[in-house]
Amino acid sequence: MGKLGAAGKAGAVGKPGAMRGLAAVGRLRAAGRPRAIGRLRAKTEGIIVASDYRLARHRLLYVLLFGGLAMAAVVALFPVVWLALSSFKGPVELYRTPLTLLPDQVDLRKAAQVWQTLAFGRYYLNSLWVVAGAVASAVLVNGLLAYGVSVLRPAGHKLVTALMMGSLMIPPILNMGPLFRQIVALGLIDSYIPLWLVFGANPFYFLIMTTYFDRLPRALFEAARIDGCNGLQMFWKVAVPLSRPILAVVAIFAANAAWSDFLLPFLVLRSDALQTVMVKIYTLQAASATMQGFGPDKLLMVLVLASLPPVALFVLFQRRITSTVATTGLKE
C-alpha cells in the first residue's frame, strides 16, 4: 500500500494534467450515473414506468422503441437539413458528382442577395397580413361557435355539432369548386377577405375548442349570469380568460396553415403585388428559366426563406402544440 501510494503520488506529481483530467472524468461519471438512475426511478408517467425497466424484455422493448423513433426522426429531418445545406451551394456544386451533403462554404450574403433580388419582403408582408386575418377569424368565429354549442347549448346545438363533425368526412378539395364560384359571384377576386373567412369554419378548430369548453366549470358561468352578464359578456369575461391555452394553439395552427396555403390564394390572388410567399414560389419556378443569374440554387434559398416562419413557430410552441393535440378528445 505504501509503494502504491508512493507510486500514485509520484505519478500524480509527474503527470498533473492527466491526473486532473482523469479525476474530472471520474467525478462526472460519478455525478451523472446516480442522477440518471434517480431520474429513471422517479419515472412514474407514461405507459412504461420505472418498475417496467426491471424486466429484460421491457428494457429490450425500450431500446427498440428508442431506436425506431430515432430513425424516424432522422428520416423526417434529413430533407430539411439537405435543403438548408444545399441552398448555400452554387449551381455547379449542386450538380457535381459525387454528390456531397456539406457545401464548400456557407455565405449568408446569398440569402440577402436573393431577398433583395426578388423583393421578397413584399410577399412576406402579404403572407403575414393573410396570417393575421386568418388567425383572428379562426379564433373568433370558431370560438364563438364552440362556446355556443358547449356552454349556451341553444335548441339545435346537437344538429350543429353533427354537421360540423360530418364535414370532417368531406375532403377539402371537394369544397374548392363551390367555394370559388361563390368568391367570384361576390366579386372577391384579388381580395384577402375569402382567405380570412375560410378559416372561420374549420371543424378541427371547432372540435378542440368545444372539448376544452366542455371542461370549464359551469358554476363560473352561472355566477356570471347571476351578476348580470349576458351570453356574449360571459364569453369575453369568463370563457376567453380561462381558454387562453387552447386559443393560442388554434392561433398557431391557423397561422401555420395560412402561411402554407397555396391553392386558394393561387386562385384568388391574381395581381403580383398581392401574392403570398407560396404563390410567388410557384410563379417563380415557371419564370426562373428566363431570369438571368437565377438558378436552382437560388430557388432552394427561396424555399429556405419561406420555411423559416413555420419552423420558428413550431420550435417556440412545440410543447404547447403536442400537449394539446394529445389531450384533444379527452374529457374528465
From TrEMBL:
Signal peptide: none annotated. It comes from the Bacteria. InterPro entries: MetI-like, MetI-like_sf. Residues 124-317 form the ABC transmembrane type-1 domain. It is found in: Cell membrane. Its main location: membrane. SUPFAM superfamilies: MetI-like. Pfam families: BPD_transp_1 (PF00528). The keyword Membrane applies. Keywords: Cell membrane, Membrane, Transmembrane, Transmembrane helix, Transport. It is a multi-pass membrane protein. PROSITE patterns: ABC_TM1 (PS50928). Belongs to the binding-protein-dependent transport system permease family. This is Carbohydrate ABC transporter permease.
